[in-house]
Structure formats: structure tokens, C-alpha cells
Amino acid sequence: SKPFVAIVGRPNVGKSTLLNGLAQRRVSIVEDIPGVTRDRIYCNVRWLDKEFTMIDTGGIEFRNKADQIVDGIREQAELAMEEADVILFVVDARAGITKDDMTIANMLRRTGKPVVVAVNKVDSENLEMEVYEFYSLGLGDPIGISAVNHLGFGDLLDKITEGF
Ligand code: GDP
Ligand code: MG
């Protein structure tokens, strides 16, 4: 079967926008657990001669209380750890590195799985310098993208599919 790529990251960094931008075809929406909004969205993505399935675990991260946001992020990362061949960690160039980004980065590093860092919302050239800050996550070369404008997708897909 096709390799799995899981998208993780805190709310509002642009995970869903990115998934929609990369997807050729939405495969399915599964699991709506009562009390927990947990729609897991699977998409097929083709890049050159490669194909993979991308999972957006995004629905689980939104809670009212601050402590539950952290729980949601952890749950998301755990799902990614179990199932993913590659983890796509999305961060926000406009926001810079936040405490939650660091928490997620630490969890992802412990998985031992390949992690690709996508620095989203790099919509213009003057935001390109902001990408370098994200080297300090300790997860390799961050790739600047704009999910809205479909910028940087080629470099991102090259990196994601490197080992496929
Ligand atoms: P998610 O919570 O991580 O799934 O984030 P969403 O995909 O729902 O996006 C959150 C907000 O960020 C929305 O208002 C998007 O329009 C916006 N957004 C997503 N990608 C970009 C981008 O590349 N540039 C800018 N400027 N905004 C973006
Ligand atoms: Mg989302």
C-alpha cells in the first residue's frame, strides 16, 4: 500500500489549507467520535512517479481549555507516530516559533520517524528570512511554503517523497 504522511501542527497554521492544496482527490472522512470532533481526513497525493496518502488529524486539536489543547496536540502526534511513514510538521512564519511548536517538536523528535518541517504563510519574499528561525526546532531544513498561494509545493513534495 501507499506510504502514509501525517500532518501535525497547532491550530491555524494552515494544515487543512495545505492538505486541500496538495490533494488530487479526497479519499474518505472517517471516525466521528461523539464528544470529540475527530474527523480524520485522508487524501491521495501524486508527485512525479510517487504516490502517498496524507492524513489530516486536524479536528482533534480544538478545545476550550488551554490544557486540553495540549492534550489534543499530543493525541495528534501519537496518531502520527503510530501510522506515519513521514510526519509533516506545519508551523507559521507569521507567528514564529511558539511554546506549543517546541512541545510538538520534542514529541516528534522522539518518534525517530522522518519529519519534514513546512513553514507556512511565506506569501511574499520578505517573509523568506523568517524560515531560518525554524532551524532551531532541531528537525532539519525547514521549507518555506504558502498553502494559500501554492508556493514551495515542489520543494516540499520532493522532500516528503525522498524515501518513497
Ligand atoms: P489549520 O487549523 O492548521 O488546519 O489551519 P487552516 O488551514 O484552517 O488555516 C487557518 C487560517 O490560516 C485560515 O484563515 C487560512 O486561510 C490561513 N492560511 C492558511 N495558509 C495560509 C497561507 O499560506 N498564507 C496565509 N496568509 N494564510 C494562510
Ligand atoms: Mg484544520
TrEMBL record:
Described purpose of this protein according to its UniProt entry: GTPase that plays an essential role in the late steps of ribosome biogenesis.
GO molecular function: GTP binding; ribosome binding
Source domain of life: Bacteria
Domain EngA-type G residues, every copy: 3-164
Keywords, ordered alphabetically: GTP-binding, Nucleotide-binding, Repeat, Ribosome biogenesis
Family: Belongs to the TRAFAC class TrmE-Era-EngA-EngB-Septin-like GTPase superfamily. EngA (Der) GTPase family.
Keyword Repeat listed: yes
Entry's Gene Ontology BP terms: ribosome biogenesis
Name assigned to this protein: GTPase Der
The protein's assembly and partners: Associates with the 50S ribosomal subunit.
Residue numbers binding GTP 1: 9-16, 56-60, 120-123
UniProt entry tagged with the keyword Repeat: yes
